[in-house]
Structure formats: structure tokens, C-alpha cells
Write a structure and sequence with these properties.
The complex is a heterodimer of chains A (246) and B (108). Chain A has 246 residues and is mainly alpha-helical. In chain A, 76% of the residues lie in helices and 0% in strands. The radius of gyration of chain A is 19 Å and the shape is globular. Chain A starts with 5 loop residues before the first helix and ends with a helix. Chain B has two domains: 32 residues; 64 residues, no CATH class. The longest helix of chain B has 24 residues. The radius of gyration of chain B is 20 Å and the shape is elongated. The two termini of chain B are 34 Å apart. The chains are: A mainly alpha (246), B mainly alpha (108). Chains A and B meet through α2, α3, α4, α5 and α6 of A and α1, α2, α3, α4 and α5 of B.
Chain lengths: 246, 108
């Protein structure tokens, strides 16, 4: 429905986002807990959270810091994880590009899987009317606050968790929880299988090249399998976009 | 790693991520994704996540050393099954951690 005022649109955006927070808060808590138990200070952890504003990239960076991978490889891997934002940016651009930079820069910084999932279809259909960007801003600001506050809460929990709990296992588990529901087609299963196996066998390669070659190998496998099946990729797109919305 | 290099790392990821988020909004009409790249991007999450999960599960000590009595492998298989059945992040984490603790408790 078209909104009459900017404030109404913004508040509706906030209210649309809140039901998604049960899926976000545990992941934020875990991120804060992990950072602290890996030896980062609370200030460094919050700085990282503000700069990244991306849970999966932050978990990946923590995992790689934990295993002592060289910094450049950590940067590359975290950015590869975030490549999906280029696709989100492309899909939101027709609806946001006309705004001044004091809008587009903060809104781009706050672009997340969740607010993209909530807004992309509504922006495209034009149902939000002339205050569409306020609705999007409502979802984006609410998501940003939920995320920052849950990491902050995790920081205070993290200080009290003993080593014997093997909590570092929670990182691969959280990736597993993102990965498995995202596999809805044979090509994405192929990509995951090839990527995972190469990573296991190439783990001793220097400079974290094992992870890079595994990622490239998995993507190539996915594209090849898709070409073999010769079907439109729209189904895989929907499934993968859905799998990433948390 | 020193505090300074840690902050440089965070800043690099933060800036890179911001540039990707802003890319098409800023350069609207002047930037296009080639079709093949668009297809390839679809498989990035599955491939990268699997490449992160499998080694972390198979080699609990960090770098490539295979341990036979590795409770993480059955725990991860159980967690994957839960993720497949329920698509619930929290439940997957709870079952995986619970299984790891039980296995470690009973095998010493």
C-alpha cells in the first residue's frame, strides 16, 4: 500500500523486520561470543562488527584468524563471501540511484540479506509509493540495530564461557546451518561437494590457496552442472537467495 | 597478529564490502554484470561455505592433520541432517554442540 507520510513508511519497515530477529539474534550472540573467546577485546570486536556489518564474513574472518591464515587471504575470503551484495546492489539500483548521496551511502552500508529479502519485490512492484525509500530505510536501520546489539550482548556472554565447551565448533556448525538449506538443486549440491572436497585435500597448500582453489572449483562445478542440465537458472537463484536470508 | 594489522584487515574488508554494496546504486546505467558471472555468483555461497565447513570439521586441530577419534565428524553429520530436515539455524547449532559434548563425554 502507498504510505501517506515518510514516518509511517519508516515505521512499517521497522515492524516488517522485527519478526526476522529470532533468526538474527542467536547468530549475533554467537559472533560476539566467538570473537571474545578467540582473544579479541570488546572494543576491537565492536569495531570489526561496525566495519564488516556482515555476519557470515565476520564468522569466516574469525575462523581464519583462529587457524592463523595470512591477513591478505582473510580479506579476499571475506570479500568473496560478500560478493552477493553486488547482485543485491544491481537489483536495488533502479529504485535507489536517483536519491542523493546522503541517502544512498548510508542505505548501501546498511544493505543486508534481510532487508534485501523484505524490500526487493516490494520496490520492484512500486506498491510502496513515493515513500518507498523510507520503508527500506526502516528495515535497514532496524536490522542494523538488532545486529549490533546482539553482538554486543554476545561480547558480555563470551567472557564467561570456558574453553572446555569446544565452542569453536559452533563456527563450522553455523556455516552448515547456512549451507544445507541453500542446497536446492543438483548444481548447488555439486558446487558444495566439489568445493568441500578440494578444501579438505588442499588444506596444506600455502597462503590459504586451498580455500581459494576449492571455492573456484566448486563454482565451476556448479556452472558446468547447470549447463549440462540446460535449464533456466531462476529456480536456483530463488533457492540460493532464500538460503542466504539470515 | 598485532592490533594495527588487525584494524587494517577490518578496514579493508569493511571498505571492500561497502564498495560492493554501493556499486550498482552509484554507477547505475554504467555497469553491467556479464551473464556468465551472474550465473557463477549463484554458486559462490554453496561452494565457499562447504570449503570452510569440511576442513574445519575433518581437522579439529587447525592445520591438515587427520585424527581418527574425531567426535566432530559424527556431530557434524547429525547437525547437517537436522539442518536439512528443519532449516532451523538455532536447532542445528544446539544439536551439533550437544552431540559433540555427549561424544566427548562418553569417549573421554
Amino acid at each position: 500500500m502507498p504510505y501517506r507520510t515518510a514516518r509511517e513508511a519508516f515505521m512499517h519497515g521497522v515492524r516488517a523486520l522485527l519478526p526476522l530477529s529470532p533468526g538474527v539474534v542467536p547468530f549475533g550472540l554467537l559472533t560476539g561470543v566467538m570473537a571474545i573467546s578467540l582473544g579479541l577485546s570488546p572494543g576491537t570486536t565492536m569495531g570489526m562488527t561496525l566495519l564488516f556489518y556482515s555476519g557470515s564474513a565476520q564468522m569466516v574472518a574469525l575462523q581464519l584468524l583462529h587457524t592463523g591464515v595470512m591477513p591478505l587471504a582473510i580479506v579476499v575470503t571475506a570479500l568473496v563471501i560478500n560478493l552477493r551484495f553486488i547482485m543485491y546492489s544491481a537489483s536495488l539500483a533502479p529504485h535507489l540511484h536517483h536519491l542523493p548521496r546522503r541517502w544512498t551511502w548510508p542505505l548501501s552500508y546498511m544493505l543486508s540479506d534481510q532487508s534485501y529479502a523484505l524490500c526487493s519485490l516490494k520496490l520492484a512492484s512500486g506498491e510502496l509509493g513515493r515513500f518507498a525509500q523510507h520503508y527500506y530505510a526502516g528495515t535497514a536501520v532496524a536490522m542494523w540495530l538488532v545486529w549490533q546489539l546482539s553482538v554486543l550482548a554476545g561480547i558480555y556472554l563470551g567472557a564467561n564461557i570456558p574453553e572446555s565447551w569446544s565452542l569453536s565448533f559452533a563456527i563450522p556448525l553455523s556455516f552448515l546451518a547456512l549451507l544445507v538449506p541453500g542446497i536446492r538443486s543438483a548444481p548447488s549440491l555439486g558446487a558444495a561437494t566439489v568445493g568441500g572436497l578440494i578444501a579438505v585435500f588442499a588444506v596444506d597448500m600455502p597462503y590459504n590457496l586451498g580455500l581459494v582453489s576449492a571455492s573456484v572449483g566448486g563454482v565451476v562445478a556448479g556452472v558446468l552442472l547447470e549447463s549440462l542440465r540446460k535449464r533456466p537458472s531462476s529456480e536456483a537463484l530463488a533457492a540460493d537467495a532464500e538460503g542466504e536470508t539470515r | 597478529m598485532s592490533d594495527l594489522s588487525l584494524w587494517v584487515l577490518f578496514l579493508a574488508v569493511g571498505l571492500g564490502t561497502f564498495v560492493m554494496r554501493l556499486s550498482f546504486v552509484e554507477l547505475y546505467g554504467r555497469l553491467r554484470i556479464p551473464a556468465l558471472l551472474r550465473r557463477a555468483l549463484l554458486y559462490v555461497p554453496a561452494s565457499v561455505l562447504a570449503a570452510l565447513v569440511l576442513p574445519a570439521v575433518v581437522y579439529p586441530g587447525g592445520q591438515g592433520e587427520f585424527v581418527l577419534a574425531n567426535a566432530q565428524i559424527p556431530a557434524a553429520i547429525l547437525a547437517a541432517w537436522v539442518a536439512w530436515k528443519t532449516r532451523n539455524t538455532l536447532l542445528t547449532l544446539a544439536v551439533g554442540m550437544g552431540a559433540l559434548w555427549l561424544l566427548k563425554y562418553f569417549t573421554g
